[in-house]
Amino acid sequence: MVQAGASAPLSAILGLQSNFKYVSHRLQFTPSSSYSQLLQDTAKEVAMIYDAAQRRCWVVPKLSLLLHMSQVYASQCVDVPDDQVPSVAPHSNGLDLVRGLETSGETRILGDGRDAFRFRHLMLGLNTNLLRAIALIQDSTRKKLYGFEFMDIITQPGRGSCMKELKTDLAAKDWFDIANVVDAVVVCANLGDTITAADRASTHSKQCNKVPCGSDYLTATICCLKRLIERRGGVLDSDVKAHLLQISENSFWDLAKDPFLACQHDISSGACWQRTDIFQHLISRWDRMKRTFVKQLPTSIVIPIPVSGAVVFGTTSIRLQPQTRQQQSDRLCQGTNSNGRTNNTGC
User: Fold this and answer.
1) Among residues 336, 235, 319, 332, which one has the least CA distance to residue 273?
2) Residue ranges of region Disordered (predicted)?
3) Of 297, 307, 311, 178, which Cα lies nearest the Cα of 247?
4) CA dihedral defined by 257, 263, 269, 273, rounded to 10 degrees?
5) Strongest mean pLDDT among 29-43, 61-75, 105-119, 265-279
6) What are residue 203's DSSP bridge partners?
7) Centroid of chain to Cα 185
8) Is the pLDDT of residue 28 over 80?
9) CA-CA-CA-CA torsion sign (31, 36, 40, 45)
10) What does each C-alpha distance from 137 to 30, 50, 78, 131 come to in angstroms?
């Protein structure tokens, strides 16, 4: 018979508390030191950029984000020509950039000789910073988005960088879970029109050519959404049936039946953003189960999906008014500062 004092159970509990601690089960990989591998990998990865000043969100290839960050870095340096960092044509697929950037790795950004800081060094360093940031980001919710400051990733301030917590509009509930499956989340201010209509000449209304500010709409390229769907074992082809496409473990893309209908507006007849069938939504796994139970899943209607297209997630919440020529000019001149910080700079 073993006798134990009154303090024995308490000591055992204290011992357990001191011997066990929370351990993350997320595996973090060592960043590649190969510039060629960096281009191939990040061209197939997905990044989210939230503009806190204009209340718009963008989902783009991670390689595109890295290239833009490189251009901003060079613009902040003294005596670095504007064309020192490669520029590329408008694109929607990150793989379109790989061949053009492969020969630019040795381009000198700063310094000379052995001390030269080259384009490949800059891209590899920025990618390492983004990888460190995504490892620390908290999962976003329906009302709060978490990310790190765009400029902090670039400039690496000596004080370090604190994760930002940003309150979002009701429209963000239609896309917030995408933030939890992308490969990078950064926040900025006044980024401008990251994604616009490819053929502006075919659209007479300038309001239809750009995503409205202030409503927390998320615009994502089809290529990026395809990457996320493929990670879940799904398929997004040029012709897709109107069914639910899995984006994350608990969310499905409820594809709107007519997102690519040609614009029918002129300067004075409103805008496409007043249509309800243009906006995309995510639904939860529970909502999908309820639809299955009551047999309300979408019918098998084939929807043509343009390879280089983009869609907007959100809820119709604006009533656009016809604008004068001066008002249109003023709006088009806004949001061109691509390296501004968010107003929320406190840690």
Assistant:
1) 319
2) 322-347
3) 178
4) 50
5) 61-75
6) none
7) 6
8) no
9) positive
10) 18, 14, 32, 10
